[in-house]
Amino acid sequence: MTVKNASGVQVPDDLAQVGFVYGAYGVAGWVRIRPFSEDADALLRVKTWWLDKPGVHDVDVKHSKMHGGDVVAQIIGITDRNVAEALKGAAVSIPRSRFPVLSDDEFYWADLIGLEVENLQGEHLGTVSDMMSNGPQSILRITPAATAEAVPEDGAQERLIPFVDAYVIKVDKAAKKIIVDWGLDY
């Protein structure tokens, strides 16, 4: 199915959100992007981004670089801080086909969201609903299964499991499953 935006430009069907506009940077119209990955390879390599504010549209990136944990970028046609600030909160997406290729033991967050999580004992812990970072590592946010035995005794509504080798045993994208060394009572 071909989707076009209000201007008639074809919107890629494989868009994946890789961050969001956090605000303006400087006075010359640069934007500050909060990326969803620590290295932000996709944001730094791809020169056409898609923003969803005010509607879905493509923008061409003249310059981009890391600044602290964020990406700052100069978008062609934006030369005013107020225009850049008006983009605050916009989702930044790029076509999945433009993502850098990863090694077999690396994963994009978008690939992990929606996968089922089970432990070494075969107990279903829930589904990856989101990912977050605490700096040193990524963390799986697990929404518990809707069964009584899968809900922790303390009534917690989600589990946070560090995405590190000590806990994540196997990621099987084909089976849509992650195997972890994590008990129901953790």
Short recap of the structure:
The protein is mainly β and 186 residues long. Helices cover 8% and strands 43% of the residues.
Q: Care to describe what's here?
A:
There is one protein chain. The protein has helices spanning about 40-45, 80-85, 110, and strands at about 5, 10, 15-25, 30-35, 50, 55-65, 70-75, 90-95, 115-120, 125-135, 140-145, 160, 170, 175-180. It is mainly beta. A six-stranded antiparallel barrel has the order 3-4-7-6-5-8. It has a six-stranded mixed beta sheet with strand order 12-11-10-9-14-13, with no helix packed on it. The chain has a two-stranded antiparallel sheet with strand order 1-2. The mean pLDDT is about 85.
User: Share of helix among residues?
Assistant: under 10%
- Count up the helices: 3
Overall pLDDT level? 87
- Structure summary, number of beta strands: 14
What are the defining features of this structure?
single chain, 186 residues, mainly beta, six-stranded antiparallel beta barrel, six-stranded mixed beta sheet, 14 strands
SSE layout and pairing:
Elements (H helix, E strand, L loop, with lengths): L2 E2 L5 E2 L3 E11 L4 E6 L5 H5 L2 E4 L5 E11 L2 E6 L5 H6 L4 E5 L13 H4 L3 E4 L4 E10 L4 E6 L15 E4 L5 E5 L4 E4 L6
Parallel strand pairs: 9-14
Antiparallel strand pairs: 1-2, 3-4, 3-8, 4-7, 5-6, 5-8, 6-7, 9-10, 10-11, 11-12, 13-14
